[in-house]
Write a structure and sequence with these properties.
Length: 399
């Protein structure tokens, strides 16, 4: 019997519905997590985000050891042997800045759409257009790849099969990387993360724990769905088609490139040929958020408050579209899904996103308080607050 990809998309949509509903209910927000931490010292939502990552690492490590799937075969090359450090750093910084301007990361934009936020529809379209430009035209190759690739080392030249942390660690401490070493390394990272998360104090409420576990488990199940037996059948059947369907491959949740895929899907009048994993995930997250917002009477239509608000979101959409593709993912696509593969680039991207968002948030606070100060003064004060610059170089009083 010929494999029907619609069946797989139904499972993907169920995962997306759960993710959208729970994230909306618990107010899981990666940008909010950074904001709470940087501005008021509250790490509850940040710990929730890291809990999602640690759960995903645990699940992926165990399932890869059992042979259920292999994330080294993922459609997004998280573990690629070429360490594209400029992509991870610059893309991450751009995304972090952009999500601050756009009032949320890729996932939060979808949650806001489900709650009635029309501004987020605008951001989705702009980010989708930029992602399309980055992935389906020569823009990325000319503007970025042409100079980033030559300065990005290929770890294979140093005897490393990929850039996963277990592979790198084994090359330092062992002559070869066995399955037991990979298992022990992944379990150790996950359990240490969980220990630090729960040791550092109580969560603000149970919702933080619920959302962390839910996001992590959804990411694991998506890997299993696309990399397991059903996923293998999906991939193999697609390889024999005269006109292969786009977006087929081992993958899990990410939201920037799927914004581009969704624009293609809509522009082709919802032709099922263009119904990819990413499109199914994106649309179902919106529906899950919509269901919660209606059932909880939280649905509110929101539009731009001013021209400045419009341009902020426009810039934010551009930056998250370019930055998200450049860094190979967003705060979920790299910050949870990528991290679950233990790829070094994913950790670099995650740190870059947090730094980009943190600096932007600090600058905006100083700009609001010292409206006549220069950008340079605001930047110096922000970097000093974040311990990235000596306090003696600040020109504005700390706020």
């Amino acid at each position: 019997m010929e494999f029907n990809p619609i069946n797989l998309m139904i499972y993907v949509s169920f995962l997306g519905l759960v993710l959208g509903y729970v994230v909306s209910k618990t107010n899981f927000c990666t940008m909010g997590a950074v904001s709470d931490w940087v501005n008021i010292g509250d790490t509850s939502r940040f710990k929730s985000w890291m809990l999602a990552a640690s759960v995903a690492i645990l699940g992926v490590t165990l399932m890869e050891y059992q042979g259920f799937f292999n994330t080294s075969d993922s459609r997004i090359p998280y573990r690629d042997s070429v360490f594209f450090w400029p992509r991870y750093i610059i893309g991450g910084l751009l995304f972090g800045i952009g999500m601050t301007f756009a009032s949320g990361c890729g996932n939060k934009i979808l949650i806001r759409i489900g709650g009635g936020n029309i501004k987020s529809i605008f951001v989705l379209i702009i980010a989708g257009i930029m992602a399309y430009l980055m992935t389906r035209t020569d823009f990325y190759g000319v503007v970025f790849h042409s100079w980033m690739r030559p300065i990005s080392p290929d770890l294979a030249k140093y005897g490393l099969l990929d850039q996963s942390l277990p592979t790198i660690a084994s090359s330092i401490f062992l002559s070869s990387s066995g399955d037991y070493f990979k298992l022990g390394f992944g379990l150790s990272v996950s359990l240490i993360m969980m220990f630090l998360i729960f040791r550092s104090g109580n969560f603000k409420n149970f919702d933080n724990i619920l959302s962390g576990f839910t996001v992590g488990i959804v990411v694991i199940l998506a890997w299993l769905l696309t990399g397991g037996s059903m996923g293998n059948e999906w991939i193999e059947s697609n390889n024999f088609l005269d006109n292969p369907q786009p977006g087929v491959g081992v993958q899990s949740f990410t939201f920037i490139n799927p914004m581009s895929e969704t624009l293609v899907f809509v522009s082709n009048f919802a032709d099922s040929f263009y119904l990819t994993f990413g499109v199914s995930a994106l649309l179902s997250v919106i529906v899950g958020s919509f269901i919660y917002s209606i059932s909880s009477s939280n649905f509110r239509v929101e539009w731009f408050a001013s021209g400045t608000d419009f341009y902020r979101h426009l810039i934010g959409g551009v930056l998250i579209g370019v930055g998200g593709v450049l860094s190979l993912g967003c705060t979920i696509g790299q910050g949870v899904t990528g991290i679950s593969t233990l790829a070094l680039g994913s950790f670099v991207t995650l740190i870059s996103i947090i730094i980009g968002a943190s600096i932007t948030m600090k600058i905006e606070y100083y700009k609001a308080v010292y409206d006549s100060s220069s950008f340079f003064d605001q930047l110096c004060a922000s970097l000093a607050d974040l311990k990235m610059l000596p306090s003696s170089l600040r020109r504005l009083d700390k706020i």
